[in-house]
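Q: I'm writing up a methods section and want to include an example of the input and output format. Could you take the sequence below and give the corresponding predicted structure tokens, formatted cleanly so I can copy it straight into the document?
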Amino acid sequence: MLLNNPLGRFVYRVLVGYSQRITLARKSVQKTSPQTLREWAKNMPYSKMVYPRAFTDRAKYIFWRVLTPIYPTILDGIIALGIVRHSGRQPFLLGYVSPNISLKEFIHQTIKRSYGNHFVALHDSNELVSLRITDGFEYQYHLRVFEDGAVHGHYEYTPEAHPFLHLYEVGFEDKRDFFLSQFGELLVPAPSKEVVASTERYYACIRALRRQYRGHTQGT
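A: Here is the clean output for your methods example:
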């Protein structure tokens, strides 16, 4: 019935074309292996903190400036000991890197837009690089790029200003329009159903980790 009139055929072509763009973006062959990209990303410029006005925040700023060189080693130890457990991909799925560019070129484009390597963050599953732009000392726009070309982004407290609020995702916000307007045709937006499904998978992982942790503590 839908294809029996001009409007129906037009809508069908639009939907099919959009679906094909998503499929191409996912299957786009990258010339650089994920491991090579990860090593390359380590040399990206670090995201810099904004020097705060408040005296208490200045103390935090100095603390993190001292801690920064050794923090990756500390983080690896914390994860190895099971003090912090993390799995899945954080919300919110924005879309996929356009099939017209490589993942490396997309990451280059983030640098041109003032993003920096956010190495302080925990690593999501199959993540290539974590990036951010700070919004003052307290807030940040956080972007993650993954092996399959998926890109996730959100707005939140910085770990430097509010480490526990950051860790427990208090003030965690979806800023989809902000990110999509920044990257335009470099990203193929994900359908709303896929965005919802991606978010549900993440929170399912969180619930599973909490059950695992409770079982471990009860067993000891």
